[in-house]
Amino acid sequence: MKELGFDDDIGVLIMRASKAIDKTATLDMINQHGFTGSQWRVILALSINEGMNQKDIADMIFLETPTLVSAIDKMEKNGLLERKPDLEDRRNNKIFLTKKSKALIEPLVDFILEFRKLVTKNVSAKDLEITKEVLQKIAKNADARYDEITKK
User: Fold this and answer.
1) Does residue 152 have a pLDDT over 70?
2) Domain at 6-121: CATH code
């Protein structure tokens, strides 16, 4: 009988690393800055590309749209975000940072940069570069297969 080798499966290892990073970053961010995972990700996404609609933000930060909508509602209520009508598509709103949230960008970026150092300690720059290249290839292969399946 064939064995899958669950503990050393590349997909399982990727998911395990991703979940470990996500849960630790989220807990650390809540403790240090009071933001949930979706909230700080929204602020950082908009700091890169302000004025996106909710779907584009959700795609960028890997969240389902309903989860994002509730985060945006709360953030708007707390004065961190502002919705403005999309003049090209009246069914959509564009999301913008407020002065209050813009003041948070630098501390959030500093947090992420320090967190990256923490989770990659004892990993050489060469190993990190190889890992990134391999993961990009795996994602490209998986995306190509997804495109094949969905075009049928």
Assistant:
1) no
2) 1.10.10.10
